[in-house]
Design a protein that fits this description.
19% of the residues lie in helices and 27% in strands. It is built from 10 helices and 37 strands. Residues 7-18 and 498-527 have low confidence and may be disordered.
Length: 535
């Protein structure tokens, strides 16, 4: 028989379920280590790659072999790990390894939680995030086809330093020798143990009972069961996994970063093959849980996280991070930070926009430069173009919010809502002091501070009258450059107080400084150009 090599890495879920082997009695996931080399107050298993914890990736692979029972062996930082299990695998059995006495002891703890189990037991680890369900099912299929008592997943690497070596007699595995226990010939072996096994339950149980801590580590090593199985005449086989990334674990943050980079490379590649344009895969990060439609464009320095979805033809980036955001078809999102927000079809956002949770931008709407929104429902076609804070607000359709507008929603104790109707116009530098409502088709003059309701079709002006004080600079700022400029300007005035024009200058047309209000009765004070707004 030729050395068995797995077919290669295939994403979990590919192929029909009928192609996959029938279920096993149990999977034991070893998750008791402290991860001291991570130097973290957080359990190593809770650190993430691809938007998921290491433990989540491990359990996703484990369930592919359809176990009747799933056991997670916990130990150090168990409170954190068990709390996480409550979220991701609440039905998993928890087994405690209270004292770290080696991998053999950890598996014994898991087996004790199963009781009098028979059949096949798969053993894997909680810190091997690139391991796929396909690799485990191929391992199980090889175990059954060859009639093995033990089948181990292996890899052939250029540098095997630190790994247990696979010692073979032809196609049969005779032993697994740890680095510290290996002689020179054994250390030259490049086939390594990935630490992932399928066991016959009886062989596993008997082998665990015969383990001894007579090794350099002083621990009960699961690898010694291979030698035990051979000593009683049972067959031990190996399945070489050609995708060595699937066999790599995480022990420190350097390895975490390397595996995260490789996981992201695979995710981005899959999306490109599915019809998404990624301008620069090296600077684009996409969580596994993100969903992208065909013909989406993702520009450099973009991060898509959580449950983010992007509709067909939308353009995201550059310089954008979206977390749990829904982006509609044909929308454009540029240099934006957004969380728990909805961006409608054909809408535009950015640059330098900040969409906080609860933001809903309607179809063809706009949130522009240096705009922050929070709990804001913004209607179809409504524009909030720039330099605005829009919090706790409901805006109708087709409304324009002028530059520098502030929705003053917080009085120091409570937050209140502002409502602006459809096809209304809020002038630049206005302050809408909640709770307040502006009706449909209403106008608010630039620079106004609105504290009361504005009815449909009304113009609200709420600002002090302008007052000019002649000669103030000369009196209050003598000796300054401002005073000198004012003195020079005064000297250029004629006796009638009008600036004397140059001989060849064309007289400028005069423009009234105020405009009469349309329909104002005679004698009514003129209303200044109050609704000026920079869109």
């Amino acid at each position: 028989m030729a050395t068995r090599v797995a077919a290669g890495a295939v994403r979990l879920g590919e192929g029909s379920l009928a192609e996959w082997p029938a279920g096993v009695a149990a999977v034991i996931v070893l998750a008791a280590g402290g991860g001291t080399r991570m130097k973290s107050a957080k359990s190593k298993l809770l650190h993430q790659i691809g938007g998921r914890s290491l433990l989540t990736w491990a359990l996703d692979a484990a369930v592919s072999v359809q176990p009747e029972r799933l056991v997670v062996v916990v130990g150090q930082m168990r409170d954190q790990v068990e709390a996480h299990l409550d979220d991701i695998a609440p039905t998993a059995i928890r087994a405690l390894q209270d004292t770290p006495l080696g991998t053999g002891h950890a598996v014994q703890c898991g087996l004790d939680a199963l009781g009098d189990v028979t059949g096949e037991i798969v053993v894997t680890y909680g810190d091997v995030p690139l391991l796929t369900g396909r690799a485990l099912t191929d391992l199980l299929a090889a175990h059954r086809e060859d009639g093995n008592a033990v089948t181990v997943l292996t890899a052939v690497v250029d540098d095997p330093t630190g790994y247990g070596r696979i010692v073979r007699d032809g196609e049969v595995v005779e032993a697994i020798v740890e680095q510290r226990d290996a002689d020179d010939d054994q250390r030259a072996i490049r086939e390594i143990n990935a630490g992932i096994y399928v066991f016959d339950a009886d062989t596993l149980r008997d082998g665990l009972a015969h383990l001894k801590a007579d090794n350099a580590q002083g621990e009960l090593l699961l690898t010694d069961i291979v030698a035990y199985a051979r000593s009683i005449g049972r067959r031990v086989g190996a399945q070489i996994e050609p995708d060595t990334w699937q066999t790599m674990g995480v022990n420190d943050r350097v390895q975490l970063a390397n595996l995260n980079r490789e996981m992201n490379r695979r995710i981005v590649r899959d999306w490109m093959l599915a019809g998404v344009t990624v301008i620069d895969p090296a600077t684009t990060w996409i969580d596994k849980s993100v969903s992208l439609a065909p013909d989406v464009e993702v520009w450099p320095d973009t991060v898509l996280r959580g449950a983010t979805t992007v509709g067909e033809g939308a353009v995201v980036g550059p310089g954008t991070r979206l977390t749990d955001v829904e982006v509609g078809e044909g929308a454009h999102v540029l240099r934006t930070e957004a969380t728990l927000a909805v961006i409608g079809a054909g809408a535009t956002v950015g640059p330098f926009s900040y969409l906080r949770p609860g933001t809903e931008l309607g179809p063809d709407g706009k949130i522009g430069a240096f705009v922050e929104t929070k709990n804001a429902r913004i209607g179809a076609g409504t524009k909030v173009p720039h330099l605005t804070y829009c919090g706790d607000a409901v805006l109708g359709e087709g409304t324009n919010i002028g530059a520098g507008t502030i929705f003053a929603n917080f009085d120091g104790v409570t937050k209140s809502q502002t409502t602006v109707g459809s096809h209304s116009f809020i002038g630049s530098d206005a302050v809408l002091i909640a709770p307040v409502a502006v009706g449909d088709g209403a106008y608010v003059a630039a620079g106004s501070a609105i504290t009361g309701p504005v009815g449909a079709g009304e113009l609200a002006v709420a600002r002090g009258r302008q007052r000019n004080i002649p000669g103030w600079t000369a009196r209050r700022r003598p000796g300054t450059a401002s005073a000198a400029a004012a003195e020079a300007a005064a000297a250029a005035l004629g006796a009638d107080g009008v600036t004397t024009p140059a001989a060849d200058a064309t007289p400028a047309p005069t423009t009234p400084t105020t405009l009469p209000a349309p329909g104002s009765p005679a004698g009514e004070a003129p209303i200044p150009p109050a609704t000026a707004s920079k869109e």
